[in-house]
């Protein structure tokens, strides 16, 4: 199975309104509730692709119970979330039907106690031996040490399990120093990490800091990979209109699915680019448009870039 870790799980609420304006009362035309948090999105996409996937992280309170109940209906997905005394956060996305834009509100998440963090580390250590790969995704809730991902990466490495990190800021900086097999920053995260706006220079700098491979996601421009065996670009045929939230999570799912199936780098990148663009087509994070995915996977190619990595 593939293991995903979401320390800051969420229940994602989406409100659709005709036009979003300040100082106005809005009529909500449609409401959706979904299991959320970055690793949960990754897991839902992997499960829909048919990969056995296990979800760990924290869940608590009524929202945590709702999240677990919602995940229990997903084939191929196993819940190994660790219970906490606090209440799982909600996020609210308000979709403006007129402009198509999304306005996002994210709660910070419940404070995790030292004992709960210890329980997570224990659960993680017991899940690692059964994992083909592990993905560590998203922000850290209050109470979890800033070096949490660095710790989880070292554990995965000593268990011989390939580990992917998708986070930002200081947890990303510390995580990279622990030498993960792969990091998946977006353009802003990569620039913030390295101080360089040129994605290729920045990806190479991230490798020098300890990431074995870097796949940078560049929005509608697709993916840039810098790996020990070569560098590639893979881009969608053109920009897709839709909801880009969770597109990066689908990149992670595509890369992990390819890794688990023993695909080479160009093939992994094609899957990741197609799956993420097909996620922009779909209305919500953690979901993708199946027909668009198949069509895009047949049309996208990965182009090798000159120069040693
Ligand atoms: P998130 O964290 O919300 O999941 P992200 O900011 O990490 O997303 P992005 O770089 O925005 O990730 O998008 C991930 C990938 O999704 C891109 O590399 C690209 O392959 C695809 N993608 C994103 N936006 C578009 C778009 N408008 N058209 C086509 N593909 C897109
Ligand atoms: Mg983005
Ligand atoms: Mg992202």
> Structural class, judged by helices and strands?
alpha/beta
Count of discrete domains: 1
CATH superfamily (homologous) name: Ribokinase
Based on the coordinates given, report the CATH architecture: 3-Layer(aba) Sandwich
Write the element-wise H/E pattern from the N-terminal end onward.
Answer: EEEHEHEEEEHEHEHEHHEEEHHHE
The main sheet comes to:
11 strands, mixed
Helix percentage range: 25-40%
Tell me the overall shape: globular
The CATH topology turns out to be UDP-N-acetylmuramoyl-L-alanine:D-glutamate ligase
Tell me the β content.
Answer: 15-25%
**Helical stretch count?**
10
Bound small molecules, which ones?
Answer: adenosine-5'-triphosphate, magnesium ion
Query: Using DSSP, what is the number of strands?
Result: 15
- Overall CATH class: Alpha Beta
- Measured distance between first and last alpha carbons: 31 Å
Radius of gyration: 19 Å
Overall average residue pLDDT: 96
* Parts with pLDDT < 50 across at least 5 consecutive residues: none
């Amino acid at each position: 199975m593939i293991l995903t870790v979401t320390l800051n799980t969420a229940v994602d609420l989406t409100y659709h309104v005709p036009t979003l304006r300040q100082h106005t009362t809005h009529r909500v035309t449609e409401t959706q509730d979904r299991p959320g948090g970055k690793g949960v999105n990754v897991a839902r996409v992997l499960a829909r692709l048919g990969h056995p996937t296990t979800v760990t992280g924290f869940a608590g309170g009524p929202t945590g119970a709702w999240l677990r109940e919602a995940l229990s209906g997903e084939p191929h997905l196993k819940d190994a979330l660790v219970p906490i005394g606090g209440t799982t956060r909600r996020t609210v996305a308000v979709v403006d039907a007129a402009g198509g834009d999304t306005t996002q509100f994210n709660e910070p998440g419940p404070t995790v106690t030292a004992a709960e963090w210890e329980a997570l580390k224990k659960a993680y250590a017991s899940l690692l031996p059964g994992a083909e790969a592990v993905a560590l995704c998203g922000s850290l809730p209050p109470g979890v040490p800033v070096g949490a991902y660095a710790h989880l990466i070292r554990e995965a490495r000593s268990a011989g399990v390939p580990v992917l990190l998708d986070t930002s800021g200081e947890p990303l900086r510390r995580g990279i120093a622990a030498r993960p097999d792969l990091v998946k920053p977006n353009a802003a995260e990569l620039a913030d990490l390295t101080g360089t706006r040129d994605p290729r220079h920045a990806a190479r700098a991230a490798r020098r800091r300890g990431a074995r491979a870097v796949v940078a996601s560049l929005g509608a421009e697709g993916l840039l990979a810098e790996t020990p065996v070569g560098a590639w670009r893979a881009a969608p045929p053109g920009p897709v209109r839709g909801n880009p939230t969770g597109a990066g999570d689908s990149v992670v799912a595509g890369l992990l699915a390819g890794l688990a199936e023993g695909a080479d780098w160009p093939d992994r990148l094609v899957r990741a680019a197609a799956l993420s663009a097909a996620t922009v087509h779909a209305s919500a994070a953690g979901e993708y448009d199946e027909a668009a995915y198949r069509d895009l996977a047949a049309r996208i190619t990965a182009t090798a870039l000159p120069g040693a990595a």
